[in-house]
Amino acid sequence: MRFQPNVRRIAAIHDLSGIGRTSLMAVIPILSTMGFNVCPLPTAILSNHSQYPDFSFLDLTEEMPRIIDQWEKLGVTFDAIYTGYMGSPRQIEIVCGFIERFRTADTLVVVDPVLGDNGHLYSKMTQEMVEEMRRLACRADVLTPNLTEAFALLDRPYKTDCTTEELKDLIAELSEMGPDTVIITGVPVPGQSGLTSVIARSKSDLRTWKVTCPYLPAHYPGTGDSFTSVITGSLLQGDSLPIALDRAAQFILQGIRSTFGYRMDNRDGILLERVLPNLNTPIQSATYELV
What we know:
Elements: E1 9-13, E2 16-19, H1 24-33, E3 37-40, E4 44-48, E5 57-59, H2 64-74, E6 80-83, H3 89-102, E7 108-111, E8 116-117, E9 120-121, H4 127-137, E10 142-143, H5 147-153, H6 164-176, E11 181-189, E12 192-202, E13 208-214, H7 223-236, H8 241-260, H9 272-275, E14 288-290
Parallel strand pairs: 1-3, 1-6, 2-4, 6-7, 7-10, 10-11
Antiparallel strand pairs: 4-5, 8-9, 11-12, 12-13, 13-14
Helix pairs in contact: 1-7, 2-3, 3-4, 7-8
C-alpha cells in the first residue's frame, strides 16, 4: 500500500520583500512551522518592504493569472486561501476570481484587508482600493482588519475610544458583508495606554471574545501578517476562535519581547527565528475573556 503524507496546502497571496520580516517572509515560516505546505502567489517582489525610504519593486499583476492557470491545470487544491496586501484594484479582481475558481465547501478563506493604520490609509490606498477591498472582504470566511481598516471598510470616521458595545456593532456590520468571523486588531484599551486588545466574533457562535496584551512602545512591520498567519494555522488545526486569538496574541507578544531589548533597526521586524519553535508548544495560560 502506498501512503500519502497528510499535509494541508495553503495558497498565500501576498508580496515578497527580500529584507524585512513582512508579508511572505513572515507568512511562509510561520505556517510552515505549524505544519502546512505554503504555496505563495506573489503580488510583487520588493528588494525590501516599503517602510524603508527606498526600494525596488517588480509588479507581478500580469504574471498572477498565468500562475493561477497553471495551478488549475495541475489540479491543485487548497485547504485555505489567505490574502494580504494588494497593490491595485486589478490585483483584487484577480484574487476574487482565484477564490471563485479554487474555493470548495471545505476551503477556509482568510482576508487581511491591508489598507492603513493609526487612523490613516497607506499612501497608495485610494478610495477605489477601499471599495475593491470591500468586494474581497465579502468573500472571506475570516476577516482580520485593524481598527483603522474596520472603519474604512464601513466608510465610517475613525475613532479610538470605542466602547465594547461599539466594537460589537462594528463586528456585526462587517459580518453582514459576508464573513462568518471578524477579528479586529490593535484596539486601544480606554484609560490604559500600556495595554492593547483584540476582539472577535463568529456569526456561527454568537459569542464575542477579547484578548488583552501589554503594549510595548515600538513599531515592528509585519506583526499584522504574523498575527493573521497564526490565526489561519490555528483555525486549520482545529482550535476554537478564543484559543486561536490567544495563540496569535501571545506569539506576537513573545516576538516583540524577544526583539525589544536589542539595539536594531525596527524596520527589520520582530526576530521570528527566536520564537518560531513556540508555535508548537501548548499555551501555558489562557488570557481570553467573554465580553
